[in-house]
Structure formats: structure tokens, C-alpha cells
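Risk register update: the risk of archive-format incompatibility is retired. Evidence:
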Amino acid sequence: MDRLTMTDELEAIDDATIVKRKIDHTLARFSAAHDELEAEEAKKRERRERLASRPAALLEQTRTALQRVVTTTDSDPAETEQAPQTRLQEKKERKTKQSAKAGRIAAAVVAALVFLSLGSAWGAQTWFDAKFNTVASLDEDSADIQDAAGQNGDENFLMVGSDTRDGAAAEDGVGDANGTPGARSDTVMIAHIPADRQRVVMVSFPRDLEINRPECKRWDPATSSYTDQTSPAQKIAKLNTAYAVGGPQCVTKVIQQITGMKINHFVGIDFNGFKSMVDAVQGVTVYNEKPIDDTTLGMVIPQAGEVRISGDQALNYVRARHVKGDPTSDYGRIKRQQAFLGALLKTVMSKEVILDTGKLSGFIDAFAKATFGENLGIKQMMTLAKSMRGLDSGKVKFLTVPTTEEANNRGNEVLLQGKTKALFEALINNTPLDEKSPEPPASSTASAPTSSAKSGGAKKSSSSG
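Archived output:
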């Protein structure tokens, strides 16, 4: 047989043929692998293009639905040419049109909500999450955590309001880093949401609470980072010094020592950027029994009753500590902070903000710029905000950690150990709270919304909820 008609596989086997066949087979494998990779990449490109076009299509659908609602008139010109109707027929027709219009409005709202939720799923969430400043803050393996396995599924947000003056402008009225260097935690509170999501309990801690501060890495607020130095332990110290010397990690250590709770979210908010969040939603409504006049900050809110306050007013509202006629000082401020936080979250979750893309994105952008922490993002904050939507239904209870309510000779607030232990055991085990659990002392300023019914639930479930 002519060798020219023979395939390579039928050639006489010698060393050169063996080498040639190995090269051919290797090239064939590379070619096949290349083809597979190219096909896989083509599928990925197609999927990315499809996902990228999905939000645009949803937006167009939403816009069209809203446009139909807005442009639809109550009467059709063609209908004016029809024969006269009886009053009964006109009444039925009006009801039909009203029902149809209500249906169109509902459809438009649903379309908007679908767009917002799917838009988050298709990239908005990633875009917004990238804006948050991540700072090492948590210690979820701490030996101070009690029944760690039993706390699975619970969401515990440790929220710290820092009054660092770095970057503050003169018109902010909070001073500057030269006059008040470093950073202090004027606000420390835990937002506890159990695994069954049946209640929310907010527990505040006085800034002058006496603590046994552990050894912590030293914190540099100017760079929002830890240094190589270590702050030694201090047997007797104020709570707000924990943040000043050791930043988020030190505060988390202290709170876990006191509570035994597993802190799995840290939210640090710089008061210097706080007011922009309020301005983004065009103000927040608070209630005051009388005007708030602070001896240090001046007249914060000049009128009593329900008042819609701006960002500048809100900043002083949560900072005011020397309000005339309020002898409780820090406890009065705690009540105002709790009341304001509830009012802010309620505003953010209202339809006026949720259905207004500009307001919602403006708030998230402002929040991200003024916020830092760990395990923090849109999904986590929405869990907190949605859980607190039941403010009017008594789902949310505001408390202050039990203290003697009188400063000792060192000027510090002292914990009532027995009541403190009982409070946090009830939160950890998801059992009913004692109706006598202490709340901030009464004052003449804003009162935080509290539940009149017993907040409690069944024994903790191991489900994540």
C-alpha cells in the first residue's frame, strides 16, 4: 500500500514516530482544553450580559408601570361619545375605574419593590457594600462568650458612636482634633435580634460605666487602624476609655466580658459625618416634652411636641449631655439617642424613602461614609432595620444596663451585677425579660418608645431564623 495513503497512526513505529505522536497528542489535548475554556468563557460572557441587562429591563418595566399610573386619566375621550348612562351605571363604572387605578398603583409599587430587591441582588448590594470601611472589630472565639453554640442564629450588633474631631469643620460646632484629640465612645449600645426574629432589644451602656479594661492593641483614630503598641490592662476605668485606647476590638472585649453575648456585628459611627444621613432623608421626626436647651451646645430644639429636625439639629440632639432641667445627664442623653435611633430607622424603612431611589441611595451613601466596622453591609443593616419596623407594635424594647444610677466617689456608674447577669441570660436564652428590668430614669426630654407588653418568647431555637 502506498505510504502516502496511510494515516500517521499506521506508520512504522520508530523513535521519531513515537516523538511525533506524543507531540501531536499533546497539541490535541491543549487544543481541546482551549476550546473548552473558550466555550466556558463565552457562557460566562453571555451570563454577565444577561445579568447586566436584567436591572435595566426591570427599571424600564418599573418606569413604564409608573408612567401608566401617572398618565392614565379618569375618562377616555371615546367614552364621551357613548349613550347616556343611568346613575347606577355611572356609579358602577366609577367604582370599576377606581379599582382598576388602585390595581395599577399596587402593580407599580410591587414593580418598584421587585426592582429594588432584584437590583440589590444583581449588583447594587456589592456596589454599596464596597463603600463601607472594614475595620477588625470582632472576637467571636472569645472565652467570655456564654453558650456560644446556643447563640447561633442570633444577630448582635454592637453600635458605637465616636466623637472623634478629626476632619470636623468649624461650622460643625463639635470642636477639632487640636482642642479635643483622640476619639471617645459617647454612645455604646447592643441591638439584639434573636434567631426567631420575634423581638428586638436595645441595651445602652453609660459612657462613664466603671469597667475592668483588658489589655488591648493601641488604636489610632486618625488612620482607623491598630498600631504595634499595646495598652496595658486597667483594673478601674471608664467604658469610653476602651475605645479611646483600644478602638473597636477593645470595646468588643469589654462588652462581651460584661454580657457574655456573642457580638457578630460592629457598627462604628463617626458623629462628624452623622448629620449627612439625616439630611439624605430630608429630616427625622422626634418628640420632646419640652424644648431642649443645653448649657454647652445652646438651644438644640426650641419647641416641644413632634418636630422634624435637620442633620445639624440631630447631631446636637444625640450629643447633648447638659440639658437644662434634666438632672439625669448621661441617662437623659441615652434616652434621646435611643429615641432618635428608632425614629431614624423608622424613617429609612418608610415608603417615602424605600420607594425613593434618590433618598435611599443618598442615605446608604452617607451611612457608608460615616460608618466603619466588621461584618457590616447592606444585608446586615437591612436585617436590623426590618426587625425594627415593628416599633409601634411593641416588638422593640429599649433598656439601659442596670446600674446604681448614682456615680461613686470616682465619678463612675456602677453595675448591679445580679440584675445585669439576669438581663443578659434572658437575652442569650431568649426567655421573657423581667418586667422590672431597669430603664433610663425618667426625664423631661424625649422618651424612647418601649413595649408595654412583656417581651419574651419560647426557649431559643437552634435555627438561624
